[in-house]
Amino acid sequence: MTEGSLADLGEGGVAVSDVISDSKDLHPGDTLALVLGDGTPVETTVAAVYDRALGFGDLTLPYDLLSAHVDNPLADTVLVATTLSDGELTAALAGHPGLSVKGSGHVADALAEQRQNGAQVAFLAMGLVLAFTTIAAVNTLAMATADRRREFALLRKVGTTRRQVLRMLRLESLTVAITAVLIGSAISLAVLTGFSAGMTGEAAPAPAAVPYLLVAAGVTALALIATSLPGRFSLRTAG
Q: In order of start, what are the domains of the chain with their CATH numbers?
């Protein structure tokens, strides 16, 4: 807790994360208008502000208030603050089949599993987008190179060797690839910085080095292949 206390989270109360508090300038005692799961509008009073919202959530509402406006009011998990051991809690729940005692990391593990399931769908969609983008980029480079057949023929007539023309194409491809990597890196860094600032309050993006290097190497390889192969074919037909 950074402001207020959960002890004041009574009927009609709400505890908010520091992200919500900063974005809406909310403090304990202020009023926050919400719309519940069934579309019911409700006026709540801020009781407390807490940090580490990424691991807990942005809003904490009283169970009685929320359960009346959702399809399934049964709680999957109950957080308990107690001095009892896990064994004592298990013994106390012996008369309630289906209930079990988990450690403090159980909720974090469950949330991580949910995020992982959602990430797999997002990765699949992103993979399809990247595949179509790759096809379009390779096709553009190949067609642009093939259209330079006359240029290659002229270079050969003025004394340029086949190896020199291919070296020129490789240098051009590297220039295009490096430019693409730099522009893409700048755009990604700007997006990640803004996302980091909005989610955590700090502009501290954390890009993964290995995937970044793999993407940069893949872009460079595709650019070289998409120009070298059509270039060789064009040189062969150009004579």
A: 3-75 (2.40.40), 108-238 (no CATH)
